[in-house]
Fold this sequence. Notes:
With 337 residues, this protein is α/β, with parallel strands linked by helices. It has 2 domains: 2-130 and 307-336, Alpha-Beta Complex (Quinone Oxidoreductase, Chain A, domain 1), CATH 3.90.180.10; 148-283, Quinone Oxidoreductase, Chain A, domain 1 (Alpha-Beta Complex). It has 10 helices and 18 strands. It has helices at 39-45, 92-95, 137-157, 173-184, 196-204, 218-225, 241-250, 271-276, 289-300, 317-325, and strands at 2-6, 14-17, 27-37, 56-57, 61-68, 79-82, 85-86, 107-108, 120-124, 128-130, 164-168, 188-193, 209-212, 233-236, 256-259, 280-283, 308-312, 332-336. The strands form 4 sheets. Strands 3, 5, 6, 9, 10, 17 and 18 form a 7-stranded mixed beta sheet that branches.
Amino acid sequence: xxxxxxxxxxxxxxxxxxxxxxxxxxxxxxxxxxCGVCRTDLKxxxxxxxxxxxxxxxxxxxxxxxxxxxxxxxxxxxxxVVNQYYACGVCYYCRIGRETLCTNLKGHLxxxxxxxxxxxxxxxxxxxxxxPNGVPLEExxxxxxxxxxxxxxxxxxxxxxxxxxxxxxxxxxxGVCTVQLLKLSGVNVIGVGISEEEVKTAKRYGADSxxxxxxxxxxxxxxxxxxxxxxxxxxxxxxxxxxVEPGFQLLRPGGKMVVxxxxxxxxxxxxxxxxxxxxxxxxxxxxxxxxIVDILEMASKGKLAPVVNKILKLEEINTALRxxxxxxxxxxxxxxx
Length: 337
């Protein structure tokens, strides 16, 4: 089969022929229809987030068609999304519905298991989720990470109607979906981006106010928009010192910061500020199976539109990655087969 292969860290992916995955008795072979391109893919390529054995096929936002396998709940040709975490299903975290923290993870699609930047992937049957009618597969693919991660973060915040949220990275794949989810919940949304295109995208998908952080001082602008109080919740999809520290400073007393993005550099948050203002600092990682199910149902009912702005061929994967690295891609890009 044809695939985009990581052969050396820090180098472009190579398009080449590789062996089709061989399935075991509990696995399903899936013909990939679409695979989203995530910033985590860049981090893996750079050897930062995860270091798989090379050569390796990345891609963890996968939707496609059941091709083969001894399965009970699916048939050949069924449209499915693959939940990227091959969780054990029996540990403490799996039993309470937090399988992203599974202590006996069997594999991780695109991280240590061969992923969706190839024509076929394999996965355990329990990791497949049926795609409802009417949801395009390129949109379903990004539900497995970008959109599901947005819902996971919003759930963890417990934000309520009429509160105010600040979304850092509001024009990106996760940020723009979070804007939509917050508006569905009746939240006042301030979207922050670093280009005119990013803030326009955030506005188009429902942000009440937008700030171009390259042109406007974010602290002064947010204070003005919130009558000096600051937001109830800050969602940070960037995760750098330059976004987390001012976001924390902006929170009103009793506020919450939900950090989803991450980078290699540390940031500083004062313990006195944390305690005296009763701020809650929350980490949010990816999406659970239930998050993906919920997002697909919302998409099928037209409540939310997973934003896939660029659809490219497998041969254009390095272009998609370069656009992402240069912050030239708003929403999500996807490879379509």
